Amino acid sequence: MATTTVSRRAYPKRKRAEISYYESSSDEGQVDDEYGASDNMSAAARKKLNASRISVSTKPLPKRKIFPFTSLPAELKNQIYALALTVPDRVGLVSKTKHYRRTVTRSNANVLYKDGRKRRYRYQLASKGPIIDPTPRPILTPNILLLNRAIYAETQPILYAGNFFALEDTTALHAFLAIIGPKNRATLTNLSIRGWGYTKAHKALNHPAFTLLAGAVNLGRLHLDCQISWAGPRRVARQLYRDGFHWLEAVGAAKGKYDAAVELIEIPEEHMTNFYYSGPSPESEMEKFRAELRKMLR
Predict the structure, then answer these.
(1) What is the C-alpha to C-alpha distance for residues 68 and 78, in angstroms, rounded to an integer?
(2) Residue 114 in 3-state DSSP?
(3) Do 119 and 189 form a contact (C-beta atoms < 8 A)?
(4) 8 A C-beta contact, residue 89 and residue 95
(5) E strands along the chain, which residues?
(6) pLDDT tens, 119-161?
(7) Predicted pLDDT at 231
(8) Under a CB-based contact definition with an 8 Å cutoff, are residues 228 and 268 in contact?
(9) Main-chain phi, psi angles of 166, to 5 degrees
């Protein structure tokens, strides 16, 4: 039986690039690649592959496609700023610790307390179920301040002067004033304090909070919706002077009247009379409070 011999080349086969003469559309190729890669690639690798296909243009947009916001009239821009940076109701702020740093976060001002009782929602027992706030929170867009320096200079007074800030307590007040800085403190016009510190940890921040408030000499109203003292209006005035004399004297010096800050303070009548002390009328108790505060400012 004859044997066959196979002849081999004396030189290696020349390597050539594979050429395909089949022209497929980009959509078909993308679908084939995706289905082919789905079997052998993980989700992260597939996501990276899809992202690499998206070409991001680094060319600036032509001027005809850029809205000329800076060329708008000042009246129209102020209306846009007011819609983005102000809310019709109060801006509620509560204290929070983030990365071991004291800060504040937004909350609905009308649910800081429940049923008129001075008790915070977060202090309730977890056994009562999750806390659901049905009230929608107004939307603020402070990121507009970061567009450029000109817009920041135009919008910064609107954000702080056009809103009524309701602080949970003096702890939140201290954190808020420390964060916004002295320039923004000077533009504040309306503040409400909903809680006075009584425990050792919170009581220690009453005086520092009002020390930072000394830069807010343009306040038009300071609403103290909290129980400062349980022993009558004169004790309320003394406690407020002890913790807030820096702000009281700073406002008097700025306005050229030693008792100018006294007229800015508002205290609800339920905080002037209580079951420990009851006066003739809330109006007379408020007059006693103001008279005692003026006496201490002289």
Answers:
(1) 15
(2) strand
(3) no
(4) no
(5) 91-98, 101-107, 164-167, 190-193, 221-224, 265-266
(6) 444 433 333 444 445 566 678 888 888 888 999 999 998 999 9
(7) 77
(8) no
(9) -110, 110
